[in-house]
């Protein structure tokens, strides 16, 4: 008769707390220093020993994946779902709204400034680029946004509403929505003037280590 496996024990409260401390510290360090942030700095900010870090994350790549994956999955899911929306302009605005709201929770922009990333993250970035390009192309083809707007333009504008209100020490929590509305009005073709400079190229996508 086959033996029944015992159910896995849930992590102890202190272990779960240490993991959350490490993740929170890593978010700050990555946002400040990029993916090159040292494990020593992360553990110092978290107030845990290096041994504790490596009990939770075998490598820094594992930590990067744990920090980035939930937010990237959420963004990719929203973008891909809106690729089949009936109104391409509304779909793009909805995506930008979700992206700005998530940027308020966590800054993962460092991810687009790295050459190498864990495989799971690279796959998500590829899906993100593809879905965002599709949203922009559909909005442009439908006439919802001006014909000279590119995916790179929209990507650079994604976090702009949050960056704007960061200059105000006591900004009310939803003020970023005002600036997102201004940005989206600027994307529309009505009253548009020729843009003074060509659009930049999209950032190079990170690759996996060989």
Brief account:
The protein has 210 residues and is mainly α. The chain has nine helices and no strands. Helix 1 (13-33) crosses helix 2 and helix 5 runs antiparallel to helix 9 (176-187).
What does this structure look like?
The protein is an all-alpha fold and 210 residues long. The chain has two domains: 13-58, Arc Repressor Mutant, subunit A, CATH 1.10.10; 61-191 and 200-210, Tetracycline Repressor, domain 2. It contains nine helices and no strands. It has helices spanning 13-33, 39-46, 50-56, 60-82, 88-105, 119-141, 151-157, 160-165, 176-187. The protein is elongated. The mean pLDDT is 88.
Please tell me the overall pLDDT: 88
Q: Might you state the CATH topology name of the largest domain?
A: Tetracycline Repressor, domain 2
CATH superfamily of the largest domain, please? Tetracycline Repressor, domain 2
Overall geometry comes to elongated
Largest sheet: none
What is the architecture of the largest domain at the second tier of CATH? Orthogonal Bundle
| CATH level 1 name of the largest domain | Mainly Alpha
Number of domains: 2
Q: Helices and strands, in N-to-C order?
A: HHHHHHHHH
Helical/strand content category? mainly alpha
Helix content: 55-70%
Question: Unreliable stretches, pLDDT < 50, 5 or more residues?
Answer: none
Number of strands: 0
What labels describe this entry?
single chain, mainly alpha, Arc Repressor Mutant, subunit A, Tetracycline Repressor, domain 2, 2 domains, 60% helix
Topology:
Blueprint (H helix, E strand, L loop, with lengths): L12 H21 L5 H8 L3 H7 L3 H23 L5 H18 L13 H23 L9 H7 L2 H6 L10 H12 L23
């Amino acid at each position: 008769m086959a033996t029944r496996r015992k159910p896995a024990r849930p992590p102890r409260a202190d272990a779960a707390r240490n993991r959350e401390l490490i993740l929170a510290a890593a978010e700050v360090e990555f946002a400040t220093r990029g993916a090159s942030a040292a494990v020593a700095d992360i553990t110092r900010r978290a107030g845990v020993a290096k041994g504790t870090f490596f009990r939770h994350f075998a490598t820094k790549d594992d930590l990067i994946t744990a920090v980035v994956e939930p937010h990237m999955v959420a963004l990719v899911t929203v973008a891909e779902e809106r690729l089949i929306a009936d109104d391409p302009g509304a779909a793009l605005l909805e995506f930008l709204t979700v992206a700005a709201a998530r940027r308020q929770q966590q800054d993962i922009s460092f991810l687009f400034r790295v050459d190498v990333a864990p495989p799971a993250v690279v796959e998500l970035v590829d899906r993100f680029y593809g879905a965002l390009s599709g949203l922009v192309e559909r909005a442009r083809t439908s006439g919802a946004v001006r014909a000279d707007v590119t995916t790179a333009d929209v990507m650079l504008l994604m976090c702009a509403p949050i960056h704007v209100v960061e200059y105000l020490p006591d900004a009310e929590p939803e003020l970023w929505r005002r600036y997102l509305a201004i940005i989206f009005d600027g994307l529309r073709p009505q009253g548009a003037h020729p843009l003074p400079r060509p659009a930049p190229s999209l950032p190079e996508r990170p690759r996996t280590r060989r």
